[in-house]
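Bench notes, afternoon.
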Amino acid sequence: MDAVRLVGVTKGHPVGAIQAALEAGLTDLGENRVEEAEEKRAALGSVDAIWHFIGHVQGRKARRAVDVADLVHSVDSMKLAERMARVGEDRAAPVPVLIQVNTSGEGSKGGLEGEDVVEGIHRIAELPGLRVEGLMTMAPFVDDEIVLARTFAGLRSVLEQVRAVTGRVGAELSMGMTNDLEVAVREGSTMVRIGTALFGERETT
């Protein structure tokens, strides 16, 4: 089995804890608020790390999200994709992204969904200012492994369908968090987003 990339979700954790994790060998850091990501990147300086943005991106913050992240996991609509693509075109450097797909069917989850999801991904991948590295999904917060496996297998299936018709989408599957990472890895995840299992519970404010 290929190696699975571990993205340490540092939301709500102090810079000192992040620095300790980097010194222990963590290489990928994930944040889901633009402001917090900006503050932490500034505080840590030029550390040897890859920054992932994993939260919902408000359209008005698209440019800032691109500035702060090496990979944006959560492109969840054509409108957002077009905003980010314009940034990439302005800079003559395609923006690396993952397209978020709602394979759980939950109304609270963002992402492309429905019968036209493969076509939607294909249209986003055609935008010249983006480099689509793969797909991302979020599973329901449940213990039912059948439900979790169905959600993750659904994303893998979508990716297989997409890659059968276009070479413009990479093979990354960002799926799995602390509570469901084992199921996600079994279903083909290439990136797991882990916070609590690495850093403990977040500090309350």
